[in-house]
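We give the chain.
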Amino acid sequence: GLAFVQLFNRIDVGLRRFDGNPVMKAAWGGLAIGVVALVAGEHTIFSGEHAIGPVALDAATLGVSGLLVILAGKVVTTIVSLATGFRGGRIFPVMFLGGTLGAIATVLVPEIPLVIAVGAGMVGAGVSILRLPLFVVIFAAFFTSVESVPLLVVAAVVAYVIVDGRPELGGPN
């Protein structure tokens, strides 16, 4: 999450030279998103709320390298979309990123239950990028289960302690 914030803030500052020409800014953004989608696949475009389930369930088949390609592609498309003014928000893409990180954890350590790893990843990414711990826990509980809420709260507290006082999305570098 902290790396995402740092990368976004740097790209956002770099793209400010196009603020006077929003059509050019959007064109560069669209080109970048299209290239990433061709390389990393269709899971990297749009918001991600429909893709997180299939990606998580196919984690073992995709493997760590496949999930990392999807994750990197989604990071790029999310940052470019936000920085170049494309329509959409932050919540679902960030939750997709965290869920994908959780899926990677289950591939690396199969003993971790998928629902817990995906939920904790969603909460960790959500808190570190959005800085809305209560919302993120409730949101992730919707995608996981009520029984996982205590673990999601722990993930939220840990993430919040780590990011407290650090730069925020769109904040000073």
Remarks:
- The radius of gyration is 16 Å.
- Residues 81 and 87 are 8 Å apart (CA to CA).
